[in-house]
Structures are given as C-alpha cells and as structure tokens.
From TrEMBL, chain A:
It is a multi-pass membrane protein. One of its GO terms (biological process) is aerobic electron transport chain. Residues 17-183 form the Heme-copper oxidase subunit III family profile domain. Gene3D superfamilies: Cytochrome c oxidase, subunit III, four-helix bundle (1.20.120.80). It comes from the Bacteria. InterPro entries: Cyt_c/ubiquinol_Oxase_su3, Cyt_c_oxidase-like_su3, Cyt_c_oxidase_su3-like_sf, Cyt_c_oxidase_su3_a-hlx. GO terms for molecular function: cytochrome-c oxidase activity. Coiled coil: none annotated. Belongs to the cytochrome c oxidase subunit 3 family. This is Heme/copper-type cytochrome/quinol oxidase, subunit 3. Its main location: membrane.
From TrEMBL, chain B:
Residues 172-438 form the Cytochrome oxidase subunit I profile domain. GO terms for biological process: aerobic respiration; electron transport coupled proton transport; respiratory electron transport chain. It catalyses: nitrous oxide + 2 Fe(III)-[cytochrome c] + H2O = 2 nitric oxide + 2 Fe(II)-[cytochrome c] + 2 H(+). The keyword Membrane applies. Heterodimer of cytochromes b (large subunit) and c (small subunit). Pfam families: COX1 (PF00115). Component of the anaerobic respiratory chain that transforms nitrate to dinitrogen (denitrification). NorB is the catalytic subunit of the enzyme complex. Shows proton pump activity across the membrane in denitrifying bacterial cells. The mononitrogen reduction is probably coupled to electron transport phosphorylation. This is Nitric oxide reductase subunit B. It comes from Paracoccus sphaerophysae.
Amino acid sequence: MIEAAHPPDRLPGELIMWVLIISEMAVFGAALLIFLTLRLRDPEGFAAAQDHLHRLSAGLNTVVLVTSGFGAACAVRAARAGQAAATRRWLWGAMILGAVFLLLKGVEYADAARQGIGLETHVFYTFYWLLTLFHAAHVVAGVIILGLVSIRAGADGVEAGAQFWHMVDLVWVLLFPVIYLLR
Amino acid sequence: MKYHTQRIAYAYFVVAMALFAVQVTMGLTMGWIYVQPNFLSDILPFNVVRMLHSNSLIVWLLLGFFGSAYYLVPEEAEREIHSPTLAYLQLAILVLGTAGVVVTYVFDLFHGNWLLGKEGREFLEQPKWVKAGIVVAALIFLYNVTMTVLKGRKTAISNVLLLGLWGLALLFLFAFYNPSNLVLDKQYWWYVIHLWVEGVWELIMASILAFLMLKLTGVDREVVEKWLYVIVATALFSGILGTGHHYYWIGLPAYWQWVGSIFSSFEIVPFFAMMSFAFVMVWKGRRDHPNKAALLWSLGCSVLAFFGAGVWGFLHTLHGVNYYTHGTQITAAHGHLAFYGAYVCLVLAMITYAMPIMKNRDPYNQVLNMASFWLMSGGMLFMTFTLTFAGTLQTHLQRVNGEAFMDVQDQLALFYWMRFGSGLAVVAGALLFIWSVLAVRREVVTPGPVQQHRDQMAHRTPAE
C-alpha cells in the first residue's frame, strides 16, 4: 500500500469514527491523568496494589492485541485490493486474537475476584476495574464490529472497523504501562 | 408555509406561550417569597409554586418541541402531516392533563387516591391518570410524526429529531417505576429529566437548530448534516454516563464519582460544537434572510446554552467541588441559564421564525421581538450572576464555616432582592415577546436608512 507523498486532501475513514476516537482518547486520557495524580499521594499503596496484578498475562495480552491490530491493517489492504476472501481471513484472525485477549483478561479478573479485590478495595483498583472493564467492553464491541464488516468485506466498512480496532489497541497500549508497570 | 398541516404548530405555540407566561409569573412570585417569606404562605405554599414553576417550564418546552416538529417535519419530509386530527387530539389531552395537574396540586384534591391524587415524588408527582395521558399523547405524536417521515423524504434533521423524540417518550416511562428503596427511587428519578436535558433533548436542540440554520443562512444541507452528526455523537458520548454526576451523594457506589466527573466534564463539547456550528453557518451563509430576530434567538440560544449548560455546568460537576456546592444557589444559577439558553431560546427562536410565516406577515415586525431578547437574556444573565455570587457565599458560610442554613439565608438577602429585580426584567421580556409575536400588526419602529436600503435591495433580488 503506497500512499502519495503529500497528505490526503480529505480525512481518511469515517468522520464519526474520528470523533469517537478523539472522545475515547480524551476520556481515557483524563482518567489516566487522575489516576497518576492520585498515585502521587500514595505511591506505596499503589505499588502494593499493583503487585496483585498479573504483569506477564497483561504483557502477553499487549502482544496479542497489537498482533490483532496488524491483522486488521492487512484486512484493510486486502479489502482495498478487492480480495474479499483474504479480507475475511485477516478479519477472523483479528477477531480470534481479540477473543484470546478477553480470555486472558477473564482469567485475570477471576483471580482478582478470588483474592477479594473489588472496586472499593483501594482507589488503585477502582481505576483498575473501571478502566480495564471499560476497555474490555470496547474489545467486545470491536470484535462484533469486525464480524459485521466481514460480512460484506467492502473497503469503507473494513476501514471503519479497523479504525475502531486500532483505537482499542491504542487505549490498551496507554493503559498497560500506566496501570501494570509504572513503579 | 408550503404545507397546510404546518399550521398545527400555531395552536401548539400559542398554548406554549400561555404556559410560558404562567411559568415566569410563578418564578417571579417565588422570587418575592424569597424576600417576603410569608407572602401567600396560607393559600399557595412555596413548594407548590416551585413545582408549578418547574413543571410548567417542562410542559411548555414539550409543547414547543411538538409544535416545532409539526412545523419542520412536513418541510423535511416534503408531505403533509399524517393526521391533523390526531395532532389536535394530542394537544387537547396535554391541555386537559396540565389543567388537571394544576387543580389537583393547588387544592390537593383526591389526597392519597392511587389514580387521581398527586403521587408525592418531587417533580414526578403528577397523578397517575395524568402520567397515562402524557404517554397516550406521546404515542399519538410519535405515530403521527413517524408515519409522516416514513412516507416522505428522510433527512438527517428529521432522523435526529425523531431519535430525540422517541428517546424522550421512552425515558418518561421511568416515571411509572418507583421502587421502595430510596436509592433506587432516586437513581431512576434522574433518568427522566436528566437523561432528557443531557441526552435526547440535545438531539432535539441540534436538529431544530440545524433546521433554522438551513433556512436562515442558506448553507448547503450536506454541511449542516456533517455538523449535526458530530454534535449528536459527542452529546450521546458525554451525556449518558455524564448523568452519573447526579449519583454522587444518593447512596450509589462511589465509583460514580469518577465516572460522573470524567464524562460530565465532556458535556461542554456538544454545546461548544453547537455554538461553533451556528456562527460558522452564519459566516458561511450566502442568504440575507429578512427574519433577523429568528437569527438573533438562534445565535443567542447557542451562546447562552454553551455558558449556561456548558460552563456553569462544569463549574460544579467535579465531585470534589460538588461536595461543597451541592444544592446551593450555584445549582439554581446553572439551572436557570442552562434551561433558558438551551431550550427556552430554542423554542422562542422557532416561534420567531415560524409565526410570521404562519400569520402571513411581511415585512416582519422585529424590533420589539429583538428588544424582548435583550431584556429577557439580560435579566437572565443578571440573575445567573446574582445567584452565582449568592451560591459562592452560601457555600463558604454554610458548608465551609458550618453556619446554620437559615442564618446564611438571612445574609444572602441582598442577592435575593437583586434576583427579584432581574426576574422582573425576565417577566417583562417574556410578556413583550408574546405581545410582539401575537398582537402587533405593523412595524413599530420605522427602519433607518441602512435597513431601508437593504430592504429595497432584498425586494429587487428576492432571497432564493
């Protein structure tokens, strides 16, 4: 996929999808900023709470989701070339990886619930649950959207679906280091 | 007027304006009770006046929305309203219900009766038969308007308007659900008015504003629709979870403090978009529409909604701030400017636009109407500032220093006197508006040389 050297004269993809992406980035960004601000008041408490999370599983999930994003990007290229069968294969690949992400996340949640970690346990977990659950809901929505656009496998639809899917990717890449890794 | 059935709007607007007069009169009465607390205390207690002030506002705005829909849907769908008879029947039901509510409240009739007596849940205290009547009227309306749109041309404006109106009617159904658990009672209670004003009513506002901009500025429909979609997307994105800012202190889990704070902070975005939209359309517009007053109300609507709903809303939406300001005069300041800017000005803009066409009046009689805009809006802004200062003082004295409620109220007397003065201006402005729309038959002020020249030019090359 060779793009022209000069910037495109119109916004690529769906306008409404861009509005949604900017809105999501703003909301997650605001929440992460609040999270970091609250952390300043209680770094030890936050670090202790963080130790109950599964960094390895979350790291693996990052690889899974980014790879899935690659699949969605390949689907866009195939859709633009008019290859419906290849488009569907890439989309299904991306969806399966999305499901793997949800599975790993579900194991993490189950373990947290087993340890008795709830929304009110510590302010760290309030944000952990709110942000990751909100993100996981977007993963579910994204898998459904990718499934819907795979039916017709048209270039515009697949592009809009991939736009959404990359946003889900991007949000996770921001959440992961701030929540799981920051010491 | 291209379609005969657009005239249905006339009846709706007249009843709406009558209730508008009642609403502001009740407001002024309350303003007086604030400074002379025993006024009418035996025959018309404060809580009843307050309820009449708020509920008549909602009812006349609803009538304004219905009227606006009956006016703009035929033009958008390019066909007559499905059934004018049903439209008038709907109005009759609403008028009967409103009269029933007022009589039931003021004389406290049928006390305790499950069907006829008032229900006691603040602002949703309508007797059950009135609630049922509202649902029937809403169903008639939705059937009538949806049939018209389905059979005619489908545009973004009518689609967004329908989405908003359907949401409005469906959310009202929560008025029937009253769990005995007080926390759940309050949770559902907020669904009715506040998922309206922070959600579906914004869709209605955006679509009516889009219609007015289309007519008044002559900008391409394609451009208007793009803006409309962006406004709708940001309104729903921020507004639905943003309504969580009402859940801070009613007993719901504490995470609502974060959800409500973050999402409601973004509720300013659709209002900023609507303001930008209105001004960009006017700048881009090629049409010099003769109805300058309608343009003034439309632009005023978008600006005052941005400040009243957007800025004054953000002022006390973060839970750390709201912990101190909750239920003080800060809330009253926000409520007044938000409702006035977003929804009162909107309906008055539509009335100003549609009435001269329905009454077949040209040239427009505009000067009094525009004067009423400045009088009413000036009064409302002054009231907002007064209440904001009163609320700031109240927050400090009562919530920070811990003084007793009534001791603090005594110290706020000066602000309440000024608020009464600003209320006088608003009532005078409202009456002037109604009079200028309904009664005046000739231009009251002779146009100056510049305007005369423009009028001549306009007549030589008629607006497309």
